[in-house]
Amino acid sequence: MHTFQPISIDLLEFNPFTKIGKEWALITSGSKNAANCMTISWGGVGVLWGKNVVFLFVRDSRYTKEFIDQNDFFSLTFLDESHREALNYCGSHSGREGDKIKAAGLSLGFRHGIPYIDEGNLVLLCQKMSATRITEDSFLAPDIKEKWYKDNDMHTMYVAEIIDIAAR
Ligand SMILES: Cc1cc2nc3c(=O)[nH]c(=O)nc-3n(C[C@H](O)[C@H](O)[C@H](O)COP(=O)(O)O)c2cc1C
């Protein structure tokens, strides 16, 4: 497999609805000593506070959230369809139960000291800008609480600057 090459954001072809919503991604955070990842399919990309950003939603209960909160950086890795099983695994098992990256047949790479999933074909390296816990009082549509937060496992919205992109 070719090694990752940096690519300019101006050349990135990225449909967020298919890439995030349908193909899914792995958010990875931590250090060389300890890192964890999980599958995400909610979020987006855009421009905020003068930066190119991603925004993602991570529930209170996720072990990955502890790594995101303890580190300034995280990555988003996109993988091709042959890794669907690994994406399902990382979206249904917790790193609290053991080394799930290994168990899913994946491995870590590091870029600028930020962990990512080496089996991917596109990696967004991100630096946190804000963390906002979404609370019930912010919902305007009537069914959100009932549909998504019956158990009060709320999301924190992270907005993070895309500081580098690598692809192969
Ligand atoms: C397709 C898919 C998409 C998911 N998207 C999200 C998401 O956007 N936010 C979130 O908090 N959890 C999401 N999850 C659930 C987490 O990936 C799952 O709870 C995972 O086991 C958490 O692992 P951890 O405890 O090691 O962090 C998704 C799961 C799947 C299968």
Tell me what you see in this structure.
- The chain has a single domain (5-167), classed as Pnp Oxidase, Chain A.
- With 168 residues, the chain is an alpha+beta fold.
- The chain has five helices and ten strands.
- The strands form two sheets. Strands 1, 2, 3, 4, 5, 6, 9 and 10 form an eight-stranded antiparallel sheet that branches. Strands 7-8 form a two-stranded antiparallel ribbon.
Q: Write out the distinct hetero groups bound to the structure.
A: flavin mononucleotide
Which regions have little confidence, pLDDT < 50, spanning 5+ residues? none
Q: In CATH, what is the homologous superfamily?
A: Electron Transport, Fmn-binding Protein, Chain A
Rounded to the nearest angstrom, the radius of gyration is 16 Å
Q: What count of domains describes the coordinates?
A: 1
First-to-last CA distance:
8 Å
What structural class do you assign from the helix and strand content? Answer: alpha+beta
Number of strands: 10
And the CATH topology? Pnp Oxidase, Chain A
Q: SSE string, helix = H, strand = E?
A: EHEEEEHEHHEEEHE
* Main beta sheet strand tally, sense and closure: 8 strands, antiparallel
Helicity range of the residues? 10-25%
Nearest-integer average pLDDT: 97
Put simply, the count of helices is 5
